[in-house]
Design goal:
By secondary structure, the protein is α/β, with parallel strands linked by helices. The chain is 24% helix and 36% strand. β34 and β35 form a beta hairpin. α1 runs antiparallel to α4 and α6 runs parallel beside α8.
Length: 568
């Protein structure tokens, strides 16, 4: 009996020890897993913290760089008169930049590396222009790998309007479903949005689309810079507007403050000063530098300064003087030879002067105004019409100054900067880039873009590559038209009303969806909620500006344009 009890007690003890051992092993396993998980979590947290620290350091470095360059008369105050002096100030040509340079300061304070990629990636002639493309990068740890956050920054002595996808220093009105795929919007005064898209029939009749054209839209990271954040909206479709004789007029009582349904993009005031440009002085600068009178050369600096600061001498008079002095080559023309042939046969060692004495010149074929692959200048005294073919494409290579009006129509491929002292009309046209480059067009007078790729369905490929600026006002129509702009649009607004309106600034009309025509006019409106179905898409691309570096307008200040943050 006692033996049975002892055996039972022994079995109980063994069972208890086994249970304790199992629980111990189970606990040890759980503890080990917990420790490993904690280690993984710690590593992951450290990786995330490392990434955010690098991202913060990079953004702070860019903010400091912007502050270092914010001076109303930057070049004079820092004794920078040549591109080589500019590079020395930045410290971008030194293996170990000194602490006094920009690159040295950013490395010492933030651990941010500065790499000059101006020539390597963008073929920027750094010995001639102040435009620079810099890669700013900061390393961080991701597991056992070292990675980098980086941001491409463009430094340029160009005016502020080149930083925005859409904008005006005055009023911005966006009617219908325009889509800002990339970039920011700027309104120096008020901004208005509506879902009513306006268009003009071939007869000239002002017409309002009968169907809701959609509201403007943009990417989540797009910022709308609006003075005092004053944005007004109307969602009454055609009731938002009335046709008063020859103009569309706002029904102001139907526009209310704010975005409908508390939606819309991020709206804030622009904190940077707006760097403006003097259009006439810029044209004079281009004329003088094209003729070999540069402010960077000791031999020609005084002559340049005397002429550009003479406000009583308009640019056309400067051009005539330069031609008389032999600094421009006159294009010889006759009634038997097409203008294109005369231009293409001319040597390009000097800027070309084509004097139409204020009359209109029409080019039906492409022209090549280049010297050793670099854009030379063609100066036209008169109205210019470039009419590309319908079944092929006319290529225009070279920079132009037009003392008159400009009309672009037909299929065109342009690698050019064009300055127009009159008004500009882009009508029934398809404009591509050529040689990997595009168009920067600056007009003193109004800008009118209409009937581009009419009734064409949406595409993944931009059909209008360039940046379009007017010192005056602009009206853009994309109801029957389809425009996918890679670049941007800006109407400074100087008192003249936008075409077909009484508005001083930028006016855009766009429908979101398909349009079926009847007798060459919009007839059946098929709306869509898909942003990609907008008949006007704007994709801001600063590289379009880089491509025309020598032809861009400039000022005595430096502006900074930062591309998106990337991780490699």
């Amino acid at each position: 009996m006692n033996r049975l009890r002892l055996n039972a007690a022994g079995y109980s003890l063994v069972t208890t020890m086994l249970m304790i051992t199992l629980f111990f092993l189970l606990g040890l396993t759980i503890f080990t897993v917990a420790v490993q998980q904690a280690r993984f979590t710690t590593v992951r947290v450290e990786n995330i913290e490392s990434f955010h620290e690098a991202k913060t350091a990079l953004n702070e470095a860019i903010a400091e760089l912007k502050a270092e360059l914010s001076d109303d008369d930057f070049f004079v105050h820092h004794d920078i008169f040549t591109p080589s002096q500019w590079d020395a100030f930045l410290g971008i040509n030194e293996d170990t930049p000194s602490p006094e340079t920009i690159a040295g300061k950013l490395k010492a304070r933030y651990g941010v590396e500065v790499e000059d990629v101006s020539y390597r990636l963008y073929n920027i002639p750094t010995n001639k222009v102040f435009l620079r493309a810099l890669n700013l990068s900061k390393p961080f740890t991701d597991g056992h790998r070292e990675r980098k956050v980086k941001r491409l920054v463009f430094l340029t002595n160009t005016p502020s309007f080149l930083k925005y996808a859409l904008g005006s220093k005055e009023t911005v009105i966006l009617n219908g479903g325009v889509y800002v795929e990339q970039g920011n919007v700027y309104a120096g005064q008020n901004a208005y949005i509506s879902n009513a898209a306006n268009y003009v029939k071939k007869s000239g009749e002002l017409t309002i689309a009968p169907i809701d054209g959609g509201l403007p839209a943009s990417m989540n990271d797009s910022i709308w810079h609006i003075h005092d954040k004053l944005l007004f909206s109307c969602t009454q479709t055609s009731s938002c507007w009335k046709t008063g004789g020859r103009t569309f007029q706002m029904e102001e009582g139907l526009f209310f403050p704010g975005w409908p349904d508390d939606g819309g993009p991020l709206i804030q005031q622009e904190t940077d000063d707006f760097i403006d440009t003097d259009f006439e002085r810029t044209v004079k600068d281009k004329l003088l530098q094209a003729a070999g009178l540069s402010p960077l050369s000791p031999e020609t600096q005084q002559a340049y300064i005397e002429r550009i600061e003479n406000d009583h001498q308009p640019p056309l008079d400067v051009a005539r003087e330069l031609e008389q002095e032999g600094k421009l080559a006159r294009v010889v023309t006759d009634d038997e030879t097409p203008y294109e042939q005369s231009i293409n046969q001319m040597p390009k060692d000097k800027p070309l002067w084509l004097d139409a004495e204020g009359k209109e010149i029409t080019l039906y074929r492409g022209i090549d105004v280049q010297q050793n692959g670099q854009n030379q200048w063609l100066i036209v005294n008169g109205n210019l019409r470039i009419e590309g073919p319908t079944k092929s494409t006319a290529a225009v290579r070279g920079n132009l100054i037009v003392f008159g009006d400009l009309t672009l129509t037909g299929n065109l491929a342009l690698n050019a900067s064009i300055y127009v002292t009159g008004k500009t009309t882009i009508y029934n046209s398809h404009i591509d880039g050529v040689d990997g480059k595009g168009l920067v067009l600056l007009s003193k007078g109004t800008l009118d873009i209409a009937r581009i790729n009419e009734f064409q369905d949406s595409s993944e490929i931009p059909n209008l590559k360039g940046y379009f600026y007017t010192d005056s006002s602009a009206t853009i129509y994309a109801v029957g038209s389809y425009l996918y702009i890679e670049g941007g649009l800006f109407a400074r607004g100087n008192g003249a009303a936008a075409p077909d309106t009484d508005i001083n600034g930028l006016v855009i009309n766009a429908f979101r969806g398909r349009i079926e025509p009847k007798d060459g006019e919009p007839w059946n409106f098929i709306p869509s909620s898909d942003m990609r179905q907008s008949r006007l898409i704007v994709k801001y691309n600063p590289r379009v500006l880089v491509e025309q570096g020598t032809g861009l307008p400039f000022v005595n200040q430096i502006s900074l344009v930062a591309d998106r943050l990337e991780v490699e």
